[in-house]
Amino acid sequence: MAQSPSPPDTSECRLQEPVSLPDSLSLYTSNTPRIGSSDAPVRILEFFDPNCPHCRTLHNRALPQLREMIPADSTALYMRPYPLSRKSAPQIFALYHAHEKGRFSQLLDVMFSFGSPSSMTPKTLRYYARAAGLPADTLFRAVASGRYGDRLRRSMSVAKALGVDGTPTLFIEGRPIPRSSYRPKCLSTLIRKHLQTSSL
């Protein structure tokens, strides 16, 4: 007789100790791109690079599985860019513009579906704009303007203060999640534990 599969081991799912930030910096701000409601009881913060293959796997596979395991509307995912190379800056500027237009998650989905382009050509930007429902000319001007440079540098300052050294890097309510716990089952366990604690 075939044995039923053993449930995944979640005994090693854990959070690390919180990391303190200088008073001048904040994890969650009104202009931090967010997927989910600001009223969600659990805030997850991700540092990402739009060209990072591991970030792509997290968004295309792990997070959709996670959403099926946790209560609806229980989490908000805050997104802070952490470019691993200069070539990611134009895409990040495009994402900042999309956030201002209420199309951040749509453009992020397009980028992670598209893969990592060798360079940001007008043709690539035009494809991004069309697929995410943004006017292409407006997106071109926003990326070329350089007006998002300070915003990106501030995000990098937050990452440095938190000790971020790669992507993706995840936090739950300011507590780092070890990369060994990025499996959907582990993330679900950690979120449910936080929900139980916060309801006491």
From TrEMBL:
Query: What protein family is recorded?
Result: Belongs to the thioredoxin family. DsbA subfamily.
Stored InterPro entries: Thioredoxin-like_fold, Thioredoxin-like_sf
RNA-binding keyword on record = no
**Name the record gives this protein:** Protein-disulfide isomerase
Record GO terms (molecular function): isomerase activity; oxidoreductase activity
Question: Does the keyword Isomerase feature in the UniProt annotation?
Answer: yes
Q: Which Pfam families match?
A: Thioredoxin_4
The alphabetized UniProt keywords are:
Disulfide bond, Isomerase, Oxidoreductase, Redox-active center, Signal
Q: Which PANTHER family match?
A: DISULFIDE BOND FORMATION PROTEIN D, GLUTATHIONE S-TRANSFERASE KAPPA
Q: Where is the Thioredoxin-like fold domain?
A: 30-178
Q: Which organism is it from?
A: Salinibacter ruber
